Amino acid sequence: MPGLTKNHPTKSIELRFIGPVEKREQAIESLKPLGFMNASEEYVSWRELFPEHSDEELPGVCLRGSRYKEGITQKQLADKIGIPQRHVSMMENGKRTIGKEMAKRLGKALNIGYKVFL
């Protein structure tokens, strides 16, 4: 039986700091040699990248993408958060809304901030 060949993406972290405004650029520049990047300069709005998706479709697209990133099936996610698999499918396809409590459960299960699902 062949082994799994899927490689998971490299794990990364996001840092946030509070400090003097005048030291912002100096802090950013000092972290670049360590492999960090300024996220506000490197990221593009999802609307620019995916103009074919509407605001109503975004939660389902984020759910599907987050599930894929974690390498789990709809059934595995459903079992993890205690709902039927069909509900996961309906949320991904925009046929079922994702409320705040469900978003929190999904965020915890998928290691992502829950607000992307709202």
List keywords for this structure.
single chain; 118 residues; mainly alpha; 434 Repressor (Amino-terminal Domain)
Under CATH, the topology of the domain at 53-117 is which?
434 Repressor (Amino-terminal Domain)
The strand count comes to 0
What's the SSE pattern? Answer: HHHHHHH
Low-pLDDT runs: none
Q: Write the CATH homologous superfamily of the domain at 53-117.
A: lambda repressor-like DNA-binding domains
Give an account of the 3D structure:
The protein has seven helices and no strands. The chain has 118 residues and is mainly alpha-helical. The protein has a domain at 53-117: 434 Repressor (Amino-terminal Domain) (Orthogonal Bundle), CATH 1.10.260. The longest helix is centred in the middle third of the chain and has 13 residues, at 58-70. It is elongated. The mean pLDDT is 85.
SSE layout and pairing:
Elements: H1 24-31, H2 39-42, H3 46-49, H4 58-70, H5 74-81, H6 85-92, H7 100-110
